[in-house]
């Protein structure tokens, strides 16, 4: 209901709209529902570790001037990014939900709410008041007579809203054959290859459960050494069960007609290599390793996870936010959104400190570059372009001159001494 009131304020009703023309000739109506691969525990673990890592991101609106100096302006965007992008979420929860929706639907739409005002120069400015991740069940792309693109969202409560596509942040995953949406040709996640693996995994798990259950249920075979009809066999089995129940000493008394053969409980399960092979097929789909899921990873393992899995998400988030929130003029002069990866860079703390001690002490890095290595945004006052150097290091030319001067002094002192002697 809360989000409904927000969307109502910008709901566009235009009877002249028609479905947008797709290059492949298809109708741009996309359902958000695909086959449920998320019932798998492996899939849940993979997406959860990705979303949890991304929730550590620190988004910032930065400005880079013509000299390349980065500044963090006091903008409404940075105010929202600091703690809460809307009344319902913290910034960490907002990012986590965004990533979950991206991996579930291969598309995620974020609606920025805003008001407009005129500055002292009479120019119209935008004051952003919130960011809301949307979860529609269907999206339609429309265009008006001026070829402006709109997106129509259908929600579970039966409501639908039509908004300018330029006013919505749209982030896509596996953006390939479809002209607008991520995923497969129909704008949905193309999980057919993954589903085959998950079906095998489910069959294996069910088979293991049935094998264990059946193995533990059958404990032995009772061979009756006489020919009995069904009624007598039933009486014989009942009598045998009663003897088992009453065998306090552990010794089962039997007459000459019965012969009991015990079965050793030795369940045969799927071997370890096969299970790991099935799991690894799913893990490779999401570029996540067992070490990442368990948290027992090395710097190199996290580096591979970061570069293959996390970094593309960071880049897409920053570019999609920048494209929607800023005009072309604002982009040209240096405004952008960057999702800083504090606490999620692949280098360990000790490795980062070693790098700073070596490169920083020789003046190779600015203060902002040092902060970037640690995952922090640039300094707010714009002084991050300063370079500092340790006094333990000198220029090679200066060092050569210094050594030559000392050598000349020694030679001069040596000559005087010889003269005096």
Number of strands: 13
The tally of domains stands at: 2
The topology string of helices and strands comes to HEEHEEHHEEEEEEHEHEHHHHEHHH
Structural class: alpha+beta
Largest sheet: 5 strands, antiparallel
The Rg value, from CA coordinates, equals 35 Å
Relative strand content: 15-25%
Spans of 5+ residues with little confidence (pLDDT < 50)? none
- Provide the residue-averaged pLDDT: 77
Q: Oligomer, anyone?
A: single chain
Proportion of helical residues: 40-55%
Number of helices: 13
End-to-end separation: 104 Å
Bulk shape: flat
Pfam family, one: Phage_portal
InterPro entries: Phage/GTA_portal
Q: How would you sum up this structure, described in words?
A:
With 421 residues, the chain is of the alpha+beta class. It has two domains: 2-189 and 292-340, no CATH class; 197-273, no CATH class. It has 13 helices and 13 strands. It has helices spanning 2-8, 41-54, 76-82, 91-105, 192-217, 230-245, 272-286, 290-294, 299-325, 328-332, 349-360, 367-373, 396-420, and strands spanning 18-19, 29-31, 58-64, 70-71, 107-118, 124-134, 138-143, 149-154, 160-164, 169-172, 220-224, 258-262, 335-340. Strands 1, 2, 7, 8 and 9 form a five-stranded antiparallel beta sheet that branches. The chain has a three-stranded antiparallel beta sheet with strand order 4-3-13. β8 and β9 form a beta hairpin. α2 packs across α7. The longest helix has 27 residues, at 299-325. The protein is flat, with a radius of gyration of 35 Å. The model has no long low-confidence stretch (mean pLDDT 77). InterPro entries: Phage/GTA_portal.
